[in-house]
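pinning this so it doesn't scroll away 📌
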Amino acid sequence: MHITITPAPLSGVLRVPSSKSMTHRELIAAALAKGETTLSGVTPSQDIEATVRILSLMGAHFTEEATEDGLTFHISGGLSPQEGRLEADAGESGSTLRFLIPLGLISGNAIRYVGHGRLSERPLTPYYGIFDEKGISFDNRDGLPLTVKGQLPGGRYALPGDVSSQFFTGLLFALPLAGDDSVLISTTTLESKSYVDMTLDTLARHGITIHEKSPELYEIPGGQSYKAGAFAVEGDYSQAAFWLVSGLTGAGITLQGLFLDSKQGDKAILTILSKMGGDICEENGMISAKPSKTRGTVIDAEDCPDLVPALAALAAVSEGTTEIIHASRVRLKECDRLHAMAVELTKLGADIEEKPDGLLIRGQDHLTGGAVSSWNDHRIAMALAAVSAKCSAPLTVEGAESVRKSYPTFWEDFKRVGGRLVTGDS
């Protein structure tokens, strides 16, 4: 599918979708808890469907109902061995795959993990070392499909923290259920630490104790139990980023549903946009972005990689030069996002230099418009749309259906705040 946008300033009020990162974590914690858990305010997406699908294979039970604020899940927790080898389809979700591989070992199942898109190319190397060390059977060192069978024991776990924090989250969820105590160590500086903080916050809410001795050392008592209960999912700052950029480059947008005390690392969007001269304000529990003349700055993306597409798009229409640094891991997402944003913004007349771990962007007042590709990546499509008001001619986004991965109603919300678009088949 492609959509063609006629440039127009966006304005209005929107409720931000639920945090995909927090939804994954809450669903996992609920699936591990004995008893009934209610999780409200969930925005459905393909990635969330993948997590529910695999947790269901492992023995948890999910029912859902639609409400004004999204889906409410009723979850009967408890993983258990199932008959035969299970086929676990993670879709294109790296979070689903990396979070759930350790839980498959806790559940006692032999599981064959498969995926789609670039998921088979995204590294799983830290787990291979653990499998070798702990005597866990697996059949592929080159990605997916991957069959894993064995039990995850307590003990010492050491792995690099500069590949992805998702490996740490997977182990932090699983090891409290091991029979013995564990120690989890990062052999490098732990990047994207804020995502681990989100995991620790979820674990504490569900009654799990983790002793954080340092950002690279966690002591995990074994034999613990997850607590069921009623929980709500907060709004997603990584999705809010696109609307905040649209508000700054358009006529102003106000967002509901964001927790001001959130642990999300992507909450950094508020600080970064303010540093760029954006008029960002918080009032009555809502966050607004008002029309602003933004300027270039240095953006360290180490702890907020998902913000790079939106910030690159804004930088392209900001005064002066922006340098995005420490963003090499952004190349390992659904696509190589550094390269994709450089290519697509250049098509629109932007002045961008691609570097090994970032982008150097010399901003200008307007972009030209024209046809661009989403690279089958939801964040690329949304980032390009976010600055459509700064285009001097219509903008056509090929592969617009890619937003289904995380934000299926994005184009409906785009129209809700005044976006003018038409759709067609590619």
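📌 and the second one:
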Amino acid sequence: MMPEEKILSVDLAQEDSYGEILPRSPLISSYHAQWEGLRFDVHQQPIHETPEHIIQQHVISISLRPQVIQAERIFNGHFQQENIVNGDVAIIPAHINHISRWQSAAEFIIISLEPAFLRRIAIEIGDWQEFEIKPRFAAPDPLIHHIGLALKSELESQSNGSRVYIESLTNTLCVHLLKHYCAANKTSLHYSRDKGLSGWKLRQAIAYINDNLNQDLTLAEIAAVVDMSMYHFSRLFKQSTGFAPHQYVMNCRIERSKKLLAQSNQSIEKICQQVGFQSQSHFTNVFRRLIGITPRTYREQVKI
């Protein structure tokens, strides 16, 4: 009698855990950046078949390969062939038996979400004490694809990225999963009809942002100042200002830098540090995108 093959249990919170199911390590990883609630990895893998395994996190796979990949996937014994194209998204819930095989070289993003983190978001947006993420074979999801590319860009940038932007993307991803790929009592969702933050809470949040522009601000700490969850704060802040928190923070940084460029003789490197950018190249790129010219050109123009 043949011994029954053991199903691997994989914890993607461990640095080298991919070695249990994939032949190559990730090309890039957020592991050392320690993004709250999730790990983000970009892979290039040869033709491969994974052993049967369960993963302790919820996993989102996003294909980056321009060519069609012929593949097969098994969820808890349910088999399906897949023709995976660029941007296709598969969702592998935590603790579900999973096997995947692909017949040509593959490039893909893996986002692994901690169940406790997703549960916290679920409670914040709708008081969901219990919910179940549904497995999904590879198919398009433009929003998840966009979020994956945005997180990839942040990870690849020379700076450490804006933590408030990364947290905003993470929260958007979690809410999208819960609304579209979750089996739960949808009647427990409550949508507030508030038109935005109260005047004093808005002033408190804005004052905190402006007082701490030189810091790597996080969405969690800004929301904590007004004693709100990240999800509700983000939604009401945008209703009040027209901007998501990370957009507002970035605009404040650029406006502060414009004043310093015009009114002081400090170096551009020193100014970029004072307004919270991790590198001069990141500062220059954002400044050019929002203002249309580089900080150096702006200084030359306003000092004429």
